[in-house]
Amino acid sequence: MNIRDAEAGDVPAITEIYARSVVEETASFELEPPVETEMLSRMESLLDAGYPYLVAAENDGVLGYAYAGPYRPRPAYRHTVENTVYVAKEAQRRGVGKALMLKLIDRCCESGFRQMIGVIGGAHHQASIALHETLGFEKAGQLKQVGHKHGRWLDVVLMQRQL
Ligand SMILES: CC(C)(COP(=O)(O)OP(=O)(O)OC[C@H]1O[C@@H](n2cnc3c(N)ncnc32)[C@H](O)[C@@H]1OP(=O)(O)O)[C@@H](O)C(=O)NCCC(=O)NCCS
Residue 86: what pLDDT? Predict the structure, then answer.
């Protein structure tokens, strides 16, 4: 497995990985999976703004991806990033998510960002909470019933790591 910068050619695989999670899970609070052009435009906006966007590649296939973006848009938040990481179902529990996140953390440190926030959709989402804990994130709070998806109310768990 090779962790490298994402390219436009990775967008179809990224779109597919994300779409499955949007439809089946609560990690993202989006309700409809975005199309490839929208995913490409989101990637370009992040790269243009200087945030890292990485993929885990194996045998020309994409196993997962991770990126950092602004935590909130107001400029005083500019040293703080929100992280995102998605791994294809078939590739989970093989260390892909952790490898992506370790590289993402390195890249964010190199770029001078100071804090990383994980915004976890659903307090039941043990995989994501455990992954963040493994990486040194600490729980910073829990917002109650701020989302509604798949017929149920969802909390958001905020996790924070100093960079
Ligand atoms: C969360 C997610 C990225 C984890 O990716 P992954 O490649 O499966 O995780 P890894 O194999 O690198 O696991 C690293 C550690 O995280 C924890 N972990 C990962 N999946 C877990 C699970 N299902 N249950 C409990 N702990 C889990 C473990 O501590 C694991 O270490 P171990 O395998 O040595 O026990 C993946 O489940 C995923 O894409 N989920 C859907 C999208 C999502 O929730 N993204 C996070 C949004 S910020």
Answer: 98
Kindly state if the Cβ of 134 falls inside 6 Å of ligand 1.
Answer: yes
Q: What per-residue confidence (pLDDT) applies to 109?
A: 98
Q: How far does Cα 162 stand from its chain's mean position?
A: 17
Contact call for residues 67 and 49 (beta carbons, < 8 A): no
Q: How far apart are CA 14 and CA 28, in angstroms?
A: 14
Number of domains forming the structure of the chain = 1
CATH number for the domain spanning 52: value is: 3.40.630.30
Residue nearest to atom 30 of ligand 1 (CA): 131
Q: What is the pLDDT of residues 44-101, one digit of tens each?
A: 999 999 999 999 999 989 999 999 999 999 999 999 999 999 999 999 999 999 999 9
63 CB within 6 A, ligand 1:
no
Question: Token digits for 93?
Answer: 């529990």
How many Cβ atoms from other residues are within 10 Å of residue 128's Cβ? 20
pTM check: above 0.90: yes
Q: Which domain holds residue 124?
A: 2-162
For residue 94 and ligand 1, the question of a CB distance below 6 A is answered with yes
Protein residue with its CA nearest to atom 27 in ligand 1: 127
